[in-house]
Amino acid sequence: AAWVRAGGTLVVWRAQGVGVAAAAGLTSARVRAGDRPKVEGVLLGLGLDDGDPVAWGEQPRSFAFDAGDPVLSAGGAHVAGRYPGDASFFVSGYAGGTAPLRGSPAIVDDVVGAGRVVLFSFDPAYRGYAEGTERLVANALLAPRP
Fold first, then answer.
1. What is the per-residue pLDDT for 67?
2. With contact defined as beta carbons under 8 Å apart, do 66 and 39 qualify?
3. Average pLDDT for residues 20-37, to the nearest whole number?
4. Distance, CA of 10 to CA of 78 (rounded, Å)
């Protein structure tokens, strides 16, 4: 926590990563309890805030691979990417009970002291071939804080 507050960058994903950042007091984002859509591995639309450094170089509309990932609440942290609430939400695969995911944060970019914490609700490096999100990971690691 001291390292992040002094200017470090912490990049985490899925429920465990968000839990670690929250337990360390580094984010106001949380996993929403009780909201568990049946998502076995689908591509979902992703709306990006092109003004946030995490999204630099990407189109405003992208996609994320969701494999039973948590639903986030930003809690006041800046949302750099959000699942759409409209028809562009679903891209491919099978999913049920996705209402809690629609419009929810997918990427949170939280300024903490002189540092930052970037939280992904999904695994942006899934099996090493998530080409749609590899730039997001690089930007999270290398771009300046918002």
1. 86
2. yes
3. 89
4. 15
Taking phi first (over 0 means left), then psi (-120 to 50 degrees means alpha), and beta for anything else, what does residue 75 get?
A: left
Average pLDDT over residues 89-107: 89
SS3 readout for 2-15: HHHHCCCEEEEEHH
Asked if 128 contacts 20 with a C-beta cutoff of 8 angstroms, the reply is: no
Measure CA 109 to chain center.
8
- Number of residues that this document lists for the chain: 146
Q: Is the pLDDT of residue 127 over 90?
A: no
* Residue pair 11/122 in contact by the 8 Å Cβ criterion: no
**Which of 111, 54, 112 lies closest to 82, judged by CA?**
54
Distance between CA atoms of residues 122 and 79, nearest Å: 14
With vertex at residue 40, the alpha carbon angle to CA 109 and CA 118, rounded to the nearest 5 degrees, is 10
Question: Quick one: which H or E segment has residue 23?
Answer: helix 14-23
Q: Is the pLDDT of residue 130 over 80?
A: no
Report the SS3 class of residue 71. coil
Backbone φ and ψ of 128, nearest 5°? 75, 10
**Model's pTM, two decimal places?**
0.94
